[in-house]
Write a structure and sequence with these properties.
The protein is of the alpha/beta class and 291 residues long. The protein folds into two domains: 7-193, Peptidoglycan recognition protein-like (Lysozyme-like), CATH 3.40.80.10; 217-286. It is built from ten helices and eight strands. It has helices at 7-16, 55-60, 96-103, 141-158, 168-171, 182-193, 217-221, 227-238, 254-266, 280-286, and strands at residues 20-23, 43-48, 72-74, 79-82, 93-94, 118-119, 124-129, 165-167. Strand 3 and strand 4 (79-82) form a beta hairpin. The longest helix has 18 residues, at 141-158.
């Protein structure tokens, strides 16, 4: 048994698991708590809507079955919309053998008994997945993976295994949803639980910079025209030593020499040692990227 998540905890857990979350207006206080207790919670129930454009319906319900009809709605695009926070009319009554197997996190989920003494609305989280449930309506990859992550987020928060997740049709003989294999779904939830939450991926390592080797003093006396001179000029500008009226550019000019002389002075050289003609020591310190 576990204390239900708060609204903030629920949203954070889903986002930490990499779920795209939207929040329906009013969902944080939308529940059926006046009809009975909410919690302690023991598991997760997966449904399909058996219709299309069901977001408004699962929030409002109808006179016979008032909303919220789930805690979250999952669109075809993979967006999870928060619907209710507390007791919701999603599961109804469950068979005791099916409920007990979920609570025990048994690897075997038996066919539910005909008797249904358990109030599953008070004890389980519910997800409604937008799907006709006719075996022909597909579950796009983004939608299915979001369902896996939604279930995994709840299990991770409470410390449950994937066997705390059951289909509506596994808890009662009255229902058949969802229209995919729950055994495969639980296997996918287990795989997700074996990974770290994805909200903060590790940054890619920065590539090691490659600097151009010193081409020799004679190279510059030939007044070269090359990408290396442009790269050198940009570094001189970055070091605050640029003496260019325009540029820098690929052609070695007097502006390059004056700029390099300013760099030599910045490095502590003076007189003939700061004549603007590059030398090996100041070149290495300038760290000109290899073009």
């Amino acid at each position: 048994m576990a204390t239900p998540m708060t609204a903030d905890q629920f949203v954070k857990a889903l986002k930490n698991e990499g779920v795209t979350v939207a929040e329906h207006s009013g969902w944080r206080t939308h529940n059926r708590n006046h009809k009975g207790a909410w919690g302690p919670v023991n598991g997760v129930v997966i449904h399909h809507t058996a219709g299309t454009n069901s977001l408004s319906f699962v929030y409002t319900g109808n006179a016979a079955l008032p909303g919220p009809l789930c805690h979250s709605h999952l669109s075809k695009s993979g967006t999870v919309t928060m619907i209710g926070n507390g007791r919701a009319n999603h599961a109804g009554s469950f068979a005791k053998n099916a409920f007990d197997a979920m609570v025990a996190e048994s690897s075997t989920h038996p066919r539910p008994d005909s008797a249904e003494p358990i109030d599953a609305n008070s004890r389980t989280y519910g997800l409604e997945i937008e799907n006709l449930g006719n075996g022909k309506d597909s579950y796009p990859s983004a939608q299915y993976q979001a369902a896996v992550r939604w279930a995994a987020a709840i299990c991770r928060f409470h410390g449950w295994t994937a066997h705390s997740v059951i289909g509506h049709g596994e808890g009662t003989r009255r229902k058949v949803d969802p229209s995919f294999s729950m055994a495969n779904f639980r296997a996918d939830v287990a795989k997700q639980l074996g990974t770290s939450p994805t909200t903060k991926p590790k940054p890619k390592p920065k590539p090691t910079p490659v600097y151009a080797p010193f081409p020799g003093a004679a190279y510059f006396k030939k007044k070269p025209n090359s990408a290396l001179i442009t790269a050198m000029g940009r570094r001189l500008v970055a070091e605050g030593c640029g003496r260019y009226s325009s540029g820098p550019g690929p052609q070695w000019t007097e502006s390059d020499r004056k700029s390099y002389a300013a760099w030599q002075r910045k490095r502590g050289f003076s007189g003939a040692d700061a004549d603007g003609w590059p030398g090996a020591q100041t070149w290495a310190a300038l760290r000109v990227p290899k073009p």
